[in-house]
Amino acid sequence: MSHAFYVYGSYGLAAVICIGLTLWVYLDGRARQAELKLLEAQGIRRRSESTGAQGSAA
Predict the structure, then answer these.
(1) pLDDT tens digit string along 15-40?
(2) Looking at the whole model, is its pTM more than 0.85?
(3) How far apart, in whole angstroms, are the C-alpha atoms of residue 49 and residue 47?
């Protein structure tokens, strides 16, 4: 029996994991953007938008 089955299987598993993680990050980013839009529609703003000085350390 050749090792090709294990090699192709591991590459396939790695590809599935990478695609799954990419999809998860994409969908989570869309969900966070939707939450930000909802909060901004309610009048809640980001603190970074209200500061006039850039580069000030806290």
Answers:
(1) 999 999 999 999 999 999 999 999 99
(2) no
(3) 5
